[in-house]
């Protein structure tokens, strides 16, 4: 059974529609990341799930129970949800132990103590029970926040940019640790970020949001190899678009030569664009081949230890491409572009 289902959810802030007929499913014990550009509606989606706003349309189910539709609304405290929001800080005047115990009012003292001890062990903060939040590092505070959110055994955890205030140096260690904590706790989670790196490190599946809708949901590999729209491709990759003519189910003609796809596609249109990522591009010196293809221009270079990475202008778009070992190009040099065979993403125009 799915832990969370959103069906056709819409929401307006005054006159502005922010969520548009949004569908989302989160499986049992799954961590789904809502990823998308600033303002696309990620936080609003979390608020709708939490019951912090009442949606104007659609249905929300948590653990099979209807919590919101046009005629019914279950309040946040009865949705069995744990929250870890960016601005949902710890209580500064309470110790770590009392912060964690905050939501456990239905338990007696001994039960509370036992649960707090379990949570402190889980988040590796044994020995910090009597400290106050200001006596902890940012990462430790977030561990307490997750311990507090999980202490009363919610069926769903909502996390809104929980790592954005953490130093980059320790951020990915913390992400790995909080992922371990969530997996150990067997809870489903919806995580909001606008960082692709965080999303890949933290979640099982990604749901790419665009203008108040889920554009596509799937594993990072699925979304990378088969983006369903230009928005998804563009959001995930640092690629460029090349105009392309369909020659066969696996071959495309571009201004930079023939491009072959590993996978055959059925095309309804003859013309469109292919989305090409840096690792699919090879730079070739103009002196070696004298091909009848358009040239690209080397804009700048930087050395990364093993090779040079060149910023190249291809079809009026800038892209960073790593050269092969031993290759070097000059600034403003015209180079030939070879597109290596790959699983082509073709979008009709
Ligand atoms: N209380 C509000 N009143 C009016 N408009 C709002 C309110 N809160 C958010 N919005 C607008 O709704 C849209 C979606 O906001 P939301 O915070 O859900 O986006 P987001 O994807 O989480 O953005 P970010 O990544 O910047 O946090 C934005 O255009 C925002 O300006």
UniProtKB/TrEMBL annotation:
Keywords, comma-separated and alphabetical: ATP-binding, Cell membrane, Ion transport, Iron, Iron transport, Membrane, Nucleotide-binding, Transport
Gene Ontology MF terms: ATP binding
Protein name as it appears in the record: Iron(III) transport system ATP-binding protein
KW Disulfide bond (keyword) present: no
Gene assigned in the entry: afuC
Superkingdom of the source species: Bacteria
SMART domains to which the protein is assigned, alphabetical: AAA (SM00382)
Organism of origin: Pseudoalteromonas aliena SW19
Matching InterPro entries: AAA+_ATPase (IPR003593), ABC_SmlMolc_Importer (IPR050093), ABC_transporter-like_ATP-bd (IPR003439), ABC_transporter-like_CS (IPR017871), ABC_transpr_FbpC (IPR015853), Mo/tungstate-bd_C_term_dom (IPR008995), NA-bd_OB-fold (IPR012340), P-loop_NTPase (IPR027417)
Pfam families registered for this protein in UniProt: ABC_tran (PF00005)
Ranges where the ABC transporter domain occurs: 4-236
């Amino acid at each position: 059974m799915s832990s969370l289902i959103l069906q056709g959810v819409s929401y307006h802030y005054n006159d502005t529609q922010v969520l548009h007929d949004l569908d989302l499913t989160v499986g049992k014990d799954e961590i789904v990341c809502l990823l998308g550009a600033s303002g696309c509606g990620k936080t609003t989606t979390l608020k709708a799930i939490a019951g912090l706003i009442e949606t104007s349309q659609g249905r929300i189910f948590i653990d099979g129970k209807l919590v919101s539709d046009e005629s019914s609304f279950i309040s946040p405290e009865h949705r069995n949800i744990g929250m870890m929001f960016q601005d949902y800080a710890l209580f500064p005047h309470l110790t770590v132990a009392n912060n964690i115990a905050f939501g456990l009012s239905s338990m007696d003292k001994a039960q509370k103590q036992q649960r707090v001890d379990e949570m402190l062990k889980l988040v590796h903060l044994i020995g910090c029970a009597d400290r106050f939040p200001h006596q902890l590092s940012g990462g430790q505070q977030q561990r307490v926040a997750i311990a507090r959110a999980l202490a009363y055994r919610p069926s769903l955890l909502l996390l809104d940019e929980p790592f954005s205030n953490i130093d980059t140096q320790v951020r990915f260690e913390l992400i790995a640790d909080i992922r371990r904590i969530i997996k150990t706790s067997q809870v489903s989670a919806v995580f909001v970020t606008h960082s692709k790196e965080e999303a890949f490190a933290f979640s099982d599946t990604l749901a790419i949001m665009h203008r108040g809708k889920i554009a596509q949901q799937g594993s990072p590999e699925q979304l990378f190899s088969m983006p369903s729209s230009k928005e998804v491709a563009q959001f995930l990759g640092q690629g460029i678009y090349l105009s392309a003519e369909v020659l066969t189910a696996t071959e495309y003609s571009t201004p930079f030569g023939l491009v072959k796809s590993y996978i055959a596609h059925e095309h309804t249109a003859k013309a469109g664009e292919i989305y090409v990522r840096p690792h699919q591009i090879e730079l070739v010196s103009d002196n070696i081949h004298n091909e009848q293809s358009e040239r690209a221009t080397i804009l700048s270079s930087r050395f990364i230890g093993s090779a040079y990475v060149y910023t190249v202008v291809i079809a009026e778009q800038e892209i960073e491409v790593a050269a092969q070992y031993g290759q070097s190009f000059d600034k403003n040099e015209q180079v030939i572009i070879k597109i290596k065979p790959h699983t082509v993403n073709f979008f009709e125009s």
